[in-house]
Amino acid sequence: MNLGEDIATLLTTYWKEFLLGTAGTLLLSVVGTGVGLLLGIFLAMGKRLRPKTGDPWYAKAGKGVLHGFCAVYSAVVRGTPMMVQAILFKYGTMALGVNWNDILPGIDVFNGWMVAGLIVITLNTTAYMGEVVLSGLQGVDPGQEEGARSLGLTSAQTFRLVVLPQALRNAIPTIGNEWIVNIKDSSVLNVIGVAELYFEAYMAANTSYAFMASYLIIAVIYLLLTLGSNLVLKLIGIKLEGRSIFRFTHGARRAQA
Amino acid sequence: MSILSVEHLRKSFDGEMVLQDVSFTLEQGECLTILGNSGSGKSTCLRCLNQLALPDSGAIYFEGKNTLEKGYDVNYLRSKVNMVFQSFNLFANMDVLKNCTLAQRKVLHRGAVEAEAVARRELAKVGLQEKAHAFPASLSGGQKQRVAIARSLCMDPSILLFDEPTSALDPAMVAEVLRVMEGLRKEGVTMVLVTHQIEFARRISSKILFLHQGKVNLFGTPKEVFASPTPEFASFLALEGK
Predict the structure, then answer these.
(1) Which one of A145, A173, B127, B148 has the minimum C-beta count within 10 Å?
(2) DSSP H or E stretch at residue B207
(3) Interface touch B52/A149, C-beta < 8 Å
(4) Whole-number percent of chain B with pLDDT over 90
């Protein structure tokens, strides 16, 4: 049999599996990126916490502990491979008595292991998103905060209404990049049996013995997914760029020029 | 009773004394200009008034209450004592109207309709009513500063603080901002001003405070301080080319 025939046979026999795998991969990347971004905002806030002079001792202690936790979480998660994290999560939760097979049983793709995979990729992405949001926050002119505070807005209002929206705007390209990374990196979750694209190709390859053809097919699907995502991101970028709200400049510097 | 009374203000940054025993008072409807060389502490002094900088010691009485006392509501103080900045600090993610309504809604708890009406009235006052839906990035420096002034006026402030409001502007745009400030002066808005526009300060101010090395060197009406300058004030004027 030649490669072309193999591919044709695989596609006709396993088209459903490849489709389900694609859906699984997309689900993992979208949920991981979306929820990871949300949690990443809190992680970034935690990493920015610093005890202030004048805080009572318990506030100082609380801030110190939270800041420490966020810093350690970020360092550990970003410093270890997601594949290892997935394995540790699997055996760790099983040791605690969690049986992932019992969660959502009987469904092909969206079974208990998919839930485990969603948790792993979300926790992993959170650490990276924390850094993304943090650098976005650092890119916001400190004058924005001063302007808000000098009108009597509280620090929470200032963060939520003025600083964070601008930080997220700054971070849009990097957030999009994390999504693309997640499309590809979710493949490592096959080690805990998450039914994503790589997992389905692995199953198809081992039943059909058409190894090259199986992995070529998913390589093309991955490429289509990332190229398609890039296109979507570009369109979002163009749409936002066209609105003056998203053209931030710092007035003072421009006026002096 | 003075609307603002500053007593024995001290402030240091990293062990370096910036303000040493600064005291002065401000009456309702007055315009006080703080002059001084770079590093004399004039901006720090202004920033202490609404606690964007926190003094080390001293007292600042506003409406008869010491704002530096524990438990004083700083956000209330700031809603009444607004600052207009050198770099405008308009919210880049909101249009002009939203810039003017945000604090009204969130701090003064005004309804949307009232807040917008107030915003449009104040924008008209600075001549920018047609820019309500423009974003800050599309405005000129002078327009940005006028919006910033309107944004502050929306809060019905007791005192307006101006921190070098024209220093970041092209010469051509300075005049439009000074014109707006002169209009406010005529309306009787109480203000404290830090500026390098000495002729303007002389014309508009009811009091001038000259800071030298963190201390009050001269304090009086423009007539008094320009008629009998201290040697430090005289050399400051010479340096500024007046």
Answers:
(1) A173
(2) strand B207-212
(3) yes
(4) 83
Per CB-CB distance under 8 Å, the chain A contacts of B93 are 162, 165-166, 169, 245, 248
Backbone φ, ψ for residue B191 (5° rounding): -145, 155
CA distance A159 to chain B (A): 12
Total domains present in chain A: 1
Average pLDDT over residues A156-172: 92
Residue A78, pLDDT above cutoff 50: yes
- What one-letter code names the amino acid at A84? V
- For B185, the enclosing helix (H) or strand (E) is helix B171-187
For residue A35, tell me if it sits in a domain: yes
Domains delineated in chain B: 4-239 (3.40.50.300)
Q: Is residue A252 part of a domain?
A: no
| A242: pLDDT strictly greater than 60 | no
For residue A198, is it within any domain? yes
How many contacts does A have with B, using Cβ atoms within 8 A?
105
Structure tokens at A144: 């924005």
pLDDT-derived band at A254, boundaries 50, 70, 90: very low
Give the three-state DSSP class for B220.
Answer: strand
**Structural domain that includes position A71:** 3-238
* Residue A245, in any domain of the structure: no
**How many whole angstroms separate alpha carbon B189 and alpha carbon B172?**
25
CB–CB of B93 and A149 under 8 A?
no
Tokens of A131: 């850094």
Q: Dihedral of the CA atoms B62, B66, B70, B71 (nearest 10)?
A: -40
Residue A156 CA to residue A196 CA, distance in Å, equals 40
Residues near A217 by beta carbon (within 8 Å), at least 6 away in sequence: A7, A10, A11, A18, A201
Residues on chain A touching B152 (C-beta within 8 angstroms):
151
With an 8 Å Cβ cutoff, are A150 and B50 in contact? yes
The model's confidence at residue B168, banded by pLDDT at 50, 70 and 90, is confident
Chain B: residue nearest A155 by CA?
A: B75
Q: In what order do the strands lie in the sheet with B65-66?
A: B16-26, B4-13, B57-62, B65-66
Chain A interface, best mutation among B54, B79, B87, by max A CB count within 10 A:
B87
Nearest to B85 by CA among B123, B13, B136: B136
**Dihedral angle computed from the Cα positions of residues A158, A163, A164 and A166, in that order, rounded to the nearest 10 degrees:** 150
- Give how far Cα B173 sits from Cα of B124, B142, B147, B168, B170, Å: 18, 5, 13, 10, 5
Across residues A159-178, what is the average pLDDT?
92
CATH number for the domain harbouring residue A28: 1.10.3720.10
Residues 6+ apart with CB under 8 A from A134: A44, A47, A48
